[in-house]
Amino acid sequence: MTTEPTYWHGGFPGIQVGSQLLSPTDAAAARIPIAYTPRDRPELGIVSRTDRVYFSTNQDFARAYAFQTEVITPSGALTSRGTLYRIQPIGAVEEDPDFAGHDVSWCAPGAVVVEVVETDVRMRARDATRAIGIYSSWDDGRPMYLEDGRLCITWQMESIGLTQEAVDEIVRPWTPVDRALERINAAVLHR
């Protein structure tokens, strides 16, 4: 007998048990404002479908996404982090192409919240980066992070003369990718 996997979703707080998680497309069609921005980051090889809800079979992976979800006041003050939910998908479950082959991230047309597991998720930024980064790839298929947490060089970095050794000197292991790329760009501009 096969058991159904447990699915986790890390996202914005305040969703109640029994509530449906809508894709951005479905929320817009129903004129429901949602505080969700698709993960469209073509420069990182990440492009989300706006007709899907994303979730994971790895609780730490989903917790990291909850941690990365920030609730900010209009003045820019961080008031809380996201929430970890246990969910039940609605519709066909498909592998998330951004993490293909890792059996970690999935998507479906919708989902229902079964349990609110943890609110205001806190963890170290490096731990969140590790939880997601070990499964992340650049647009050419190279891993985003090497096994020891070093940011893997991209073809774009190589094309401007950077080496893996140079990247290692600029960026500490498990530095969040946005911060790492900012540091690399600053170093390139000042050389």
Q: Characteristics of this structure?
A:
191 residues, alpha+beta, ADP-ribosylation fold, 2 domains, 4-stranded antiparallel sheet, 3-stranded antiparallel sheet, 6 helices, 9 strands, 26% helix, globular
Fold topology:
Blueprint: E1 7-11, E2 20-22, H1 24-29, E3 53-56, H2 59-68, E4 70-72, E5 78-81, E6 83-90, E7 94-95, E8 105-108, E9 110-118, H3 125-133, H4 155-159, H5 164-170, H6 177-189
Antiparallel strand pairs: 1-6, 2-9, 3-8, 4-5, 6-9, 7-8
Order of helices and strands: EEHEHEEEEEEHHHH
Radius of gyration equals: 18 Å
Helix content range of the residues, please? 25-40%
Q: Can you tell me the CATH superfamily of the largest domain?
A: Rifampin ADP-ribosyltransferase domain
- List the total number of helices: 6
Please name the CATH topology of the largest domain: ADP-ribosylation fold
What is the mean pLDDT?
89
State the low-pLDDT regions, or none: none
CATH class of the largest domain: Alpha Beta
Strand order of the largest sheet: 1-6-9-2
Specify the oligomeric state. Answer: single chain
Tally of separate domains: 2
Q: Shape from CA axes?
A: globular
Distance between the termini: 61 Å
Strand portion, in percent? 15-25%
Number of strands: 9
Structural class: alpha+beta
* Second CATH tier, the architecture of the largest domain: Alpha-Beta Barrel
Main beta-sheet strand count, sense and barrel state: 4 strands, antiparallel
